[in-house]
Amino acid sequence: MSFPWAKQYTPSHPFMKWMDERLPVPRLVYNAVGGGYEVPRNLNYFWNFGFLAGLCLVLQIVTGIVMAMHYAANTEVAFDTIEHTVRDVNWGWLMRYAHANGASAFFVVIYVHIFRGFYFGSYKAPREMVWLLGVVIFLLMMATAFMGYVLPWGQMSFWGAKVITGLFSAIPLVGEPLQQWLLGGFAPDNAALNRFFSLHYLLPFVIVGVVILHIWALHIPGSSNPTGVEVKSESDTVPFYPYYVAKDGWAIGVFAILYCAMVFFAPNYLGHPDNYIPANPMSTPAHIVPEWYFWPFYAILRAFTQDFFFIPAKLMGVLAMFGAILVWFFLPWLDKSPIRSSSYRPLYKKFFWFGLIPTMAVLFYCGGAAAEEPYVMISQIAALYYFAHFLIILPIVSAIEKPKPLPFSITEAVLGKDEDAKLEPSA
Amino acid sequence: MARILSILVGLFFTVALAWSLGLGFYTWATEPAQPTAEHEFHEHPKHVSFASDGPFGTFDKQQLQRGFQVYQQVCAACHALKHVAFRDLEKIGYNEPEVKAIAAQFQIPKYDEMTGMVETVEGTPTDYFPPVMYAGQGSPPDLSLITKARHDGGPYVYSLLTGYQDQPAELLEHFPDAKTPDGLYYNPYFPNLNLAMPAPLMEDMVTYSDGTPATVDQMAKDVSAFLIWTAEPTMDKRKQTGWPILGFLLFATILGYMSYRNIWANKKH
Description:
The complex is a heterodimer of chains A (427) and B (269).
Chain A: H1 14-22, H2 25-33, E1 38-40, H3 49-69, H4 78-88, H5 92-120, H6 128-150, H7 155-166, H8 175-183, H9 190-219, E2 237-239, H10 240-265, H11 295-303, H12 313-326, H13 331-334, H14 346-368, H15 375-400, H16 410-415, H17 419-423
Antiparallel strand pairs in A: 1-2
Chain B: H1 2-30, H2 37-41, H3 61-73, H4 96-104, E1 107-111, E2 118-122, H5 153-162, H6 169-174, E3 185-186, E4 194-195, H7 216-231, H8 235-263
Antiparallel strand pairs in B: 1-2, 3-4
């Protein structure tokens, strides 16, 4: 669907006309990311991160396919095949570092994308499906990244796999058999490595599929915008091409500069040195930590140190860690405020900037730190706020808050209430 | 209804966390963690600079050759270098006959498919450094990746090699249980302070072919530089490739920004 004033695709070349009548792929592209997609004119730079996330996905698939050409999923040689790729394959080092840092870049971009959604209420009607599919993508990304980190079969790969699959053993009754079934053994070994490789290759394409649904669902109501006011007239929007192609284009440049600076000058900065030690089931690393993008959730997992009534601490931690993400699925129904953008929600805005953001920063830091005091207590306070924020504060705030007056339209928000704004045509 | 349900779920998690926090705080306040010798006496690597440091870093081939000499004459007795091939030594300035000569000094185990026997033959440039049969207790780590496998790798190796000392009296006074056991050696740069490797370097242990005086400090620095190279022989190429790419991206981004400004010029947003 589209706004009535959106331009229609008109093939000019006879071949494109022929094609359009049989398989209208050019029309699809035109309506998705071309001149046929009308977008609010007032998007800020936070709206560039969706496009960047798509770029990261393509980057990961391309570099990943090349890496897979030189990799062998066998515990005897997995570590050595990666080293061989880095040392002896032409530009192998570039592929390896581009892929490893590409995962980090993907998560940086996706976290900004998600938190933009939190701030500007992108999850609210009529975009609930966009949001739900987005959370599904995030979960798939986490699974893919976790399994990818296991493939080099270094110390952190092995012990990370052991800890994370060990979480399933916390489930009552079926936990232990479930863990063994997932691993294909009692501990991570060849069977686990092979299935992780298989799934690590499969899941990115599943992500591509869900991304297509995500964009499809987005294009039904069209993009949201920083005011949260829906598009009312033609003067509110600009066509995606050339306006947002140009804006995304130079944003890609900035992203690429930062990303390449990491790949070429600090490619191991975000990794853990222990993963350059081949996996050794007999020697446990001093501190087992996952990759940085899991730290906030790892901190929540470790925050539960005491049994809670009949629920063991470990099970509480597992429930909370998964719950911390699953709660996002319910966001459209937890936040009942009809106002989307936090710019017009004075109370929620305070909780966002002084509550949620510092909490995430603290959880992030504590998740990477050793599991000792005072980090455990600090992460407990932060995790406490995290759950309170989404499950208690948000529903109450959205009920009692007095929002600020909204602008009449996007055009008015951009141009002000002057005569020019009134003269712009309205549909 | 949904609101009440959500608040109840929220209370479930927050109360459980408050419970953990309360008991954790009580334990922390009543039984403060005891300091350990590792915590008090472990030291971060010394500050030492290498030619390969920083975004413009390259390898000092002369130094790498000296470092290789130290590796070959000292470290190789116990430590393998399995990810490095003899042919790689051409990248640090040895020519083909020299590499052949170096490879020939090593005995490579070869499996004979006809007889099922493992025989040792002289190494050739395409062979990798062979495994080392270590007769003593423990397993000395392979050194190919050691500088990547430790925080601050190059300085760490240098600090470890030059960091052997007698156990401080203060340590023994406060932590009598932490006395270095027989057969281990005290070194504050090692995570648990005691390691099985005795101080491997002694003055003039190696006679450098370029005439550099072989002090312990010099040898430690050279072999650390060599091990930075073995961990990533393509590092100089990586850094040299990065600059033109960043230059191109900067140029493309400026052009991109200008076209963005141009396209949006008449559109207030």
